[in-house]
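TEACHING EXERCISE
Course module: macromolecular assemblies
Task: Read the component lines below, then compare them to the predicted structure of the full complex.
Student: A.B.
Group: 4
Components provided:
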Amino acid sequence: MDVLVQLLINGIMLGSMYAIISVGLTLIFGIVRVVNFAHGEFLMVGMYAVYLLGAYWGLNPYVSAVPVIILLFALGSLVQRFIIQPLLGADEHIQIFATVGLSTALVNLALLVFGADLYSLTVPSARQAVSVGDYTMLTGQIFMLACAVILVAGLHFFMQTTALGRAIRATAQNRNAALLMGVRVDRIYVITFGLGAACVGLASALLMPLYPVTPTIGTYFVLTAFVVVVLGGMRSIYGAFVGAMIIGIVDSLSGYYIAPDLKEVVYFAIFILILIFKPTGLFGFGRGTE
Amino acid sequence: MKVVMKAAVAAGLALGASQAFAQETVKVGALYPFSGGLALLGDESFRGLELAIEERNAAGGLNGKKIELVKGDAVDPNQAVGEARRLTSVEKVPVIFGTYSSSLSLAASQVAELAGIPYFELGAISDPITERGFKYVCRTNPTSKDFANRMVDSIIEAVAPGLNADPKSLKIGIIHEDSLYGQTVSGFQQARAKEKSLNVVETLPYSAKSVDLTPVILRLKSAGADVVLQTSYQNDTVLFFRQMKDQGFKPKAVIGAGGGYSTRDTAQAVGTENIEGALNVDFPQYRTNPQAAPGIDEFVKKYQAKYGTAPRSGHSLTNYMGANVFLDAMAAAKDLKGDAIKEAVMKVDIPVGRTATGWGVKFNENCQNTRVSPFLMQWQGGELVTVFPAEAAVAKMKTGIGTN
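Instructor-supplied answer key:
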């Protein structure tokens, strides 16, 4: 029993980490409709930025979050404007190749600049163990959960109530109709891509105290993030959050009760089952919208 | 006309001179990954060979002939094959030294074998390299089986006495990353533990790309593991130590299989106070007793003088030791043909504790050195120091993990 509760706590903490990364991917993959294979590499860039700010200016990662979010927003917008946008009319495969190329280029750039060694920041405040009864969690994890909840609620509020949010939703529903209604679709895409990347900026600040950064760190998270986004129904921010929690908990439980090397098998099996019985994902918008 | 004649005479003289010069040198191949992802430790390995050859040239060369190194850059197995072909057929080297990485060695040594040219492996640990029945492939360094055996034997010979416990009463957890490296080493560990009738309570493979090892740690905790054997890379080592602390799991000993346990980066990322006491089985590092490894201090001095830094890992030392063994054999061979060199190599007989790594040398029928064993080291005060076997030790082994 004790172990089960601890596993659930760990699963939720893991889920909130996946949630922040996946929400960003939902915006890019679900709304801009670009399969962004460089998403993990954005995370890597963000983590190196947080590392540099911490190592050379002594900034706490949580303080670095602000400049890094802005940096990643800029990076995302530029990628959309100068790499994806010229290819919007082209075949989908071409866009995929573009993001795969970007991903490879960023990994090798990081190898060139930082080498294959790992870098880490020591942030004792984020690694404080908090005990509730027999169960432990880290302050950094609790902070991550809080940020995930605030991010999802905030984005939801933004999407529902602001003009820009409505324009984004309109573009996601039907690009041509939105265009006819006077929405500047290209600009919406640039902003949305930027927002998706900015979420990764937040994630990198939250992850840096917990994980060391290497050029390939992105690949550790990105496949799971894709699963979460599809599981959540592509365009639903709530869906991504719930999907992330499910994956986090399944990851934690199956790693313990089945085997640590089979946990991917378990959550991919669940993923396939959900796709068979509910092909549009848990919070999908029904057939025909994909 | 006169000018032409003069030029022809000059050219003839130059040709004669270069031929005379050529007779004074022996080319040897050096096949390592000099670029790409493996380059750092590939280059570190090469430095050991380079120092051994410079030392020999300074002492008069190989039976009076100057040794000339011809480098081959093996980035991946394909290129390793290509470069091995170039070395054997274009450069016509009589022997090749290499390779640091097992997959590169497995590929390149096939080319050398077909060409009948001895291939001297000084650093790759995969067992099959010398188990394929090849005639001209020889290896001085220990294999992954030696690593696994040393890890298991350390429980009996070092950890249990340190805890004043019966080795059979200790609960052992084996965890490993699930690629070929982890699978191979852990397979040998399980076999050895069974042979010594030790109590293995958990064997847990995990992906090296895992972002959460708490399930592994909770399994070990639930099973009450006293000793954990981990075969891992860098990231998963860091994650394991961090999460072990977070989850309050305190085994009596943790033993790593080199890899992620040997680098200073890992210690820094984990925090020296948290990695304190972690045991590690690996090639000899520099904090080894010079009594058991004669020449180790001189090697470090020479290295420092040539490269301007302290050795970056034990790879250079291991390659230096192996290169010396094979260069001695080449000097003793009646000519530099494959069979003569092989014959001389098989005659090498050096007792344990007489080389710079502390190993002895005696090749078995597979041309694998049998008098080798990796050492047991421990992180103490931010340094990796040798603690076992006793004659090579520079510090006493402690039990427990972490300083608090």
